[in-house]
């Protein structure tokens, strides 16, 4: 077996691993990445169909934090990556379709507030309070990464109220602010960007995303998300980093509580340091079981695995703009809401009542072809138990159901779909190894605490990325940068001592 000696090994060439690698590597510090897939990106990958003429994104790459005040812009600039990327911006954040109305939410905070006030004048007091909370609690939570770097001082005055908000769900929070069920559903639908539903995600966490989306400028990388991943991968290699594709990590050798070697499918890495961007649940299975304290495993087992998703990829015979999709993205929201009971969560009700996003990829990037993507959250549900034939039949059934739902809002698309393909949580699992096909890490529920993940039981092991710090392009890249910076500082301090 080939031996590779390296100062630090990153598991996973997703956005977190690539940003960490680019920041951590230096002439006297070697870093390698082992990736199980054959290309870089993790969820930020694409695939092509119809003789390479149409490109589909696996995730959707609406990227926050790109404005002057954005943490992502700050991180990419400091990591020397910003100038390598081109972003595209749109006038709208999204268009929410509910009860026959299409509510265009513009891309800026003042515009969103004005729109909400125009549609829901009776909810003025709640809207004012929401925007005040976004500016205070949302901002404070958003600045967490900068606080770790010592660049933001916590406002202690806000902390007590912030804690209270983290003890309630987003839906409970909206119920306190509003008495019009439609504005509650409009605002709740935004949870899909966090891979969450409003009756689960804690309100403090949700407010940080509203700050990011409303205040820090959201955009799309030019080309699909694969361009972003490939750019970061190329920069890493130019800095001397090595990426080992098709090379899943299988097990880790530990002596005492120190990492000695990491065994991958094609080689053994000799290293004392691992940055794991895969699921901590999976990582724990790679370790000798006697070195995991029961208390750590128990805390891990108490976390709830987050939502997966279904995406239906469509190719039309003409530009989607000509068939009624003249905006970049729509959220189709059922006015009955998505707060479902156990039975509804497990039958087809979830496909009717969960928010369905419809993205016009042709408008995002004409090179993508006449591509439209439908995405809805889903859980492992029926997907993992079916045999191959039954799985394919079920996949077709749900695909048709979701297309029918999209056609209700965009009837002109009828008869113009020339290609369709669908991914499920089972597909996620196959390509990313994520437990239950989750696409968004662990659920950030009220009173949930994932901070223990910052102190794994093994010396030299670090968790970074969507699983430990919350999902999203900005979060994964920012915290990849932040944790690499903190480590670098520690290395310098150790040298001085
Ligand atoms: C449908 C969808 C839409 C989304 N839309 C948006 C959006 O619009 N905006 C946004 O900000 N975020 C969005 N997201 C979320 C975002 O894509 C992710 O949070 C982010 O890409 C996660 O990056 P990561 O590097 O932390 O993890 P991942 O991308 O999961 O990377 C982890 C990597 O580890 C690898 N790996 C796992 N196990 C092993 C092993 N044993 N050995 C080697 N490698 C291994 C995996 O193959 C993977 O490449 C979306 C996600 C989905 C699924």
TrEMBL record:
Q: Which domain of life is it from?
A: Bacteria
Q: Which Gene3D superfamilies match?
A: FAD/NAD(P)-binding domain
A Pfam family name for this chain? Answer: NAD_binding_8
Enumerate the transmembrane spans: none
Q: Which UniProt keywords apply?
A: FAD, Flavoprotein, NAD, NADP, Signal
Q: Supply the InterPro entries for this chain.
A: FAD/NAD-bd_sf, Retinol_saturase
Q: Where is the signal peptide?
A: none
Stated name of the protein: Phytoene dehydrogenase-like protein
